[in-house]
Amino acid sequence: MTARASLALALLLAAGAASAATSVEKDLSAGWRFRLAPGVAASDAHPEVKDWQPATVPGAVQTDLLTLGRVQDPFWRDNEASLQWVGLADWDYHLDFDVDAAMLARGHVDLVFDGLDTFADVSLNGKKVLSADNMFRQWRLPAKGALKQGKNTLDVRFASPVAKLLPWLMKQPYSLPGEFDSSFGDEPKGKQTSNYVRKANYQYGWDWGPRYLTAGIWQPVRLEAWDDLRLNDFHVAQDHVGADLAKLQAAFDLRADKAGAATLKVDWTAPDGTKGHEERNVTLAKGENQLAVPVDIAHPQRWWPVGYGDANLYHFHADVVANGAPVASADKDTGLRTVELRREKDQWGRGFAFVVNGVPIFAKGANLIPFDSFPTRVTTAKMEAILTSARDANMNMLRMWGGGTYQPDAFYALADRMGIMVWQDFMYGGAITPYDKAFQENARVEAIEQVTRLRDHPSIVLWAGNNEVQTGWDDWPDRQDFRKFVNADEVKKIDDGMRELFGKTLRGVVKDLSPNVPYWASSPSTDYEGPANVESDGDFHYWKVWSGSEPIDHYLDMTPRFQSEYGLQSFPVMATIKAFAEAGDMQPESKVMRAHQKFANGDGNQRLLLYIRAGYGEPKDFPSFVYLSQVMQAEGIELAAEHLRSARPRSMGSLYWQLNDVWPGASWASVDYFNRWKALQFHAKRFYAPVDVVPIRRDGHTEVFAVSDRVKDFDATLRTRVYAMDGKLLRDSNQPVHATALTSTSVLKADDAALLKGADPKRTVVAFDLVEQGKPVASHLLYFGAAKDLALPKPELSTNVHETAQGLVITVTAKRLARAVWVDTGDVDVRLADNAFDLLPGESRDILVSGKADAATLRQALSVTSLVDALKETHP
User: Fold this and answer.
1) Which of 221, 428, 503, 728 has CA atoms 20 to 30 A from the CA of 617?
2) What are the backbone angles phi and psi of residue 333, rounded to the nearest 5°?
3) Is 807 left (phi over 0), alpha (psi -120 to 50) or beta?
4) Is the pLDDT of residue 48 over 60?
5) Planar angle of CA 523, 528, 532, nearest 5 degrees
């Protein structure tokens, strides 16, 4: 199986595409046309698309209709409802193409679709050659017998997954529990077709994104012509990787038409330019050949996650030589490393820690959802920008959530280079899966293809079977009701089917094809070794805060071994809101704001207000509501993440929900659809820093921790300053700290009385600084109560924009304490190096600006807000 074509050829080759040197490829991506299939229900209402229109391949019907001006912007206001007809209709694609005699003279000509979305009947020169039913699979067909010299035709009929499956589902004795019911009435409540098809779950609508059921040729399509031999795959298997020696197997998957002698050659280049060569003479058998060349590398330059060393990559070039000439070649970049999921029993239960090259890594990061509602719009540049945002916020892991799509080769190549670990879910988003043999076999083949494609990426440190399937089946009310409704024998078949798929089939694929990467049956789970979603074992999803409306400080009540989901919502910045809404829409309960708030069918804006009011007070207007939603989200997730980090090694991971967005709207994301950073992303840059100082206050008592990801101990000083919020320094003290490597060290315990010494808690703040060699390496403020209960002063903020050698700098100064300072540049789209911070009395902060803007334009657009500016009632 060749790797899918990437959006960037260089990244694709680096990611490990195998191609035969003597093969000939004909790209079939250009020249396609599409139309609404004749006779479908939408024909009368949409006659403008009954005739053939130009199509973009790879692409989707919706994006082509948008390009042609046949539909309105899918993200603008409440257009989503009026565009549902597209996903409910069938569509035809047609291509005329020429084939020359030279291609037909080859021994084999294969028609290769790297991805069809999703139910697709393919005809070549009028003859049906394929019925596809899986968005995530490649389809390779021997086509030589059906092709002719000169003009050929290729036709693809895409059936709406809802229109195809719903009539069948309505006749069944039950419907498997799914995720989110359609908001548009195209499926009856409780009758979700998404369970029964291998298509991206999120496209059926989620609580952070719209319902857009795409259809189309969403990956490249081509003809591949070859003669006696094809190199299906080239893989670098890592039998042993240590500091002194790496023992590898350069594995060749070859198909030969006849037996014969060949030589397998492997050349490698280390990150420092060191080179090596190995070769082996072999005898090929007719048919499939699985062969390998041993490669030993002394003192390997190992791949490390960001923050622990360089993300070193080796380059491997492979040749298959017959009769003295290369007949097939491949190139691959990969990193040499070991990864272990360590689950040792201890006083808290059983651990859950990623160990890379023998070093336990506290996983710091977030969950990653698809980059767009329409996957083919995603460019390599957009993926790189989001990954760069993650790395710049000191994240070392992203969880590729199971309700979306497997990403293109370019994504994983970028993660490899940045040193970002990837927790890779298989694409099951939470719906209960069918147990029939056809579905299970389809899933097995999909897994083989995807693991084969991706297994040489050192960034992938875990394969997980699904998102929330086990915990949902065990604990969610609708699943419990389902168990009561369906007879016990059928329930057992469903349960056995899931255990077979996630506990055995997918595990077996990973063990066979990528044995050095751990497999995990479900997230959250204990890998089918006990109940899912428990605090003492496995990974944990915590949603009592937000979904359960519990107070934010309840994050401190849970200390799981690895918290792989938790989150709070917010709105994006006003510049992003203006990209989908008009001035008259700027109210939390307007039709448009509810349309772009998918939690609880739009009621999530009331949940936002509940948390804002509980912690801060009443917003004075809509922009204040937006700002306060971000403050609440950032400070809440900071509390949870720092609690988890302070509990190391009991807890070894914090992946909040979520990093990014599929469209502009309210969500749990910390960077919005346009990669604009919310307040949470700026906070994450600080609370995920390699060294952090963390004060945890509960019930009038504070414990301060020095948290270190460094691999060596270090000595520092804890500086404690107590300020009156109006500016007076009440106390300044220092104490020595020995910070232990790779752990959290308790450095101070004090009750409120000891810290305040009679000062008014409503008007006092404590600043903790961890100082190393005279410079603060981490800082944190501590308040004595919720923000709404504090007597926050008017800070009298001032700003100055000036040129420096590094570029434009904004300086923000506070005369008195400033809580939750936000610097906004309006419609001037620049990136600030820092934002969403508190300022002590008299303190200034310099913010470097990157982007295209001059000082005068920036001054005109600039505004600065603090907490007291956003509330209807402020304290004196």
Assistant:
1) 728
2) -105, 135
3) left
4) yes
5) 50
Structure token pair of residue 668? 């749990």
> pLDDT per residue over 243-295, tens digit each?
999 999 999 999 999 999 999 999 999 999 999 999 999 999 999 999 999 99
How do beta strands 353-356 and 349-350 pair? unpaired
- The pLDDT value recorded for residue 498 is 98
Q: pTM score, two decimals? A: 0.96
Whether 607 and 571 have beta carbons less than 8 Å apart is answered as: no
How does pLDDT run across 826-854, given as a tens digit for each residue? 999 999 999 999 999 999 999 999 999 99
Contact 673, 662 (CB under 8 A): yes
**The tokens of 11 are what?**
């990244």
254's enclosing H/E stretch is: strand 245-256
- Give the residue-averaged pLDDT of 41-61: 95
559 contact partners, CB below 8 Å, separation of at least 6: 348, 535, 643, 644, 647, 650, 651
Q: What is the pLDDT of residues 145-157, one digit of tens each?
A: 999 999 999 999 9
d(CA 795, CA 401): 42
Q: Is the pLDDT of residue 17 over 70?
A: no
Length, in residues, of the chain: 876
Classify burial at 822, counting beta carbons within 10 Å of its beta carbon; exposed 0-12, middle 13-18, buried 19 or more: buried
Burial class (CB in 10 A: 0-12, 13-18, 19+), 47: exposed
* Token representation of residue 431: 């719906």
Percentage of the chain beyond pLDDT 90 is 96
The two most distant CA atoms of the chain are separated, in Å, by 93
The SS3 of residue 748 is strand
pLDDT mean across residues, the chain? 96
pLDDT tens for 438-494 read 999 999 999 999 999 999 999 999 999 999 999 999 999 999 999 999 999 999 999
Residue matched to tokens 């603090």: 866
Q: Where are the alpha helices (DSSP H) in 159-216?
A: 161-170
Contact between 832 and 825 (Cβ < 8 Å): yes
H helix or E strand, kind and range, residue 234: strand 229-241
Distance of CA 569 to the CA centre of its chain: 17
C-alpha to C-alpha distance for 24 and 20, rounded to whole angstroms = 8
pLDDT digits (tens, 9 = 90+) for 167-197: 999 999 999 999 999 999 999 999 999 999 9
| Rounded Cα gap, residues 556 and 561, in angstroms | 14
Q: What is the pLDDT of residues 804-814, one digit of tens each?
A: 999 999 999 99
Preceding omega of 658 cis (within 30 degrees of 0): yes
Instruction: Please say whether the beta carbons of 235 and 17 come within 8 A.
Output: no
DSSP state of 730: E
For residues 398 and 390, the answer to whether their CB atoms sit within 8 Å is yes
* Per-residue pLDDT, 655: 98
pLDDT of residue 22: 74
pLDDT of residue 633 exceeding 50, the answer is: yes
Are 256 and 155 in contact by the 8 Å Cβ rule? The answer is no
CB 397 within 8 Å of CB 341: no
pLDDT for residue 16: 38
By C-alpha distance, which of 866, 869, 870, 821 is closest to 845? 821
Residue with the two structure tokens 């050349």: 267
Cα separation of 218 and 210, whole Å?
Answer: 19
How far apart CA 601 and CA 612 sit, in angstroms, is 20
CA distances from 141 to 23, 94, 369 (A): 16, 18, 32
**Which tokens belong to 274?**
């060191």
Q: Is the pLDDT of residue 13 over 90?
A: no
CA distance to 234, 236, 399, 804, per residue, from 458 (Å)? 15, 11, 15, 40
**Locus of tokens 């809440």:** 636
Computed from CA positions of residues 179, 185, 188, 194, in that sequence, does the dihedral angle turn out positive or negative? negative
- Is the bond preceding 58 in cis, omega lying within 30 degrees of 0? yes
